Amino acid sequence: MPELRVDVDDTSGVPPFEQVRDAIKAQVDDGTLAPGFRLPPVRALATSLGLAANTVARSYKELEALGVVETRGRAGTFVAGSGVERSLREAASSYAAAVRALGASEDAALDAVRRALS
């Protein structure tokens, strides 16, 4: 059974919400946390990490905006998607990194994708 592992380094210059967000995203990206995995409730995770609930809530909200997790009301927050969706996110991230390395604009990158999909 997969287990969420998050460590927050109080001495790091990285804000705690970013550390939580990045730790969860990394575990989703590497397949440790599969689609459908239920994340701990915000308050439970905050308590276990010694953080304010709002800190963890911000992490979850940013992960949801990225499409990494989905909140299902009172049922909780779950890792989103299927293998196809995860592969699509990974491909998009790789493409975005290549676009940045080329120095291309966002508009040029989106135009290239639209042409490729046509």
Describe the structure.
The chain contains five helices and two strands; from the N terminus they run αααββαα. With 118 residues, it is mainly α. It folds into two domains: 1-81, Arc Repressor Mutant, subunit A; 82-118, no CATH class. The protein has a two-stranded antiparallel sheet. Strand 1 (69-71) and strand 2 form a beta hairpin. The longest helix has 20 residues, at 83-102. It is globular, with a radius of gyration of 16 Å. The relative contact order is 0.13.
In round numbers, the mean pLDDT is: 91
What fold name goes in the CATH topology slot of the largest domain? Arc Repressor Mutant, subunit A
Q: How much β-strand is present in the residues?
A: 5-15%
Classify the helix fraction into a percent range.
Answer: 55-70%
**How many domains in all?**
2
Shape: globular
DSSP E strands, number: 2
The arrangement of helices and strands along the chain is HHHEEHH
CATH first level of the largest domain: which class?
Mainly Alpha
Question: Gap between N and C termini, in Å?
Answer: 42 Å
Radius of gyration: 16 Å
**Low-confidence parts:** none
CATH homologous superfamily name of the largest domain? Winged helix-like DNA-binding domain superfamily/Winged helix DNA-binding domain
Largest sheet data: 2 strands, antiparallel
Determine the number of helices (DSSP H or I, runs of at least 4 residues).
5
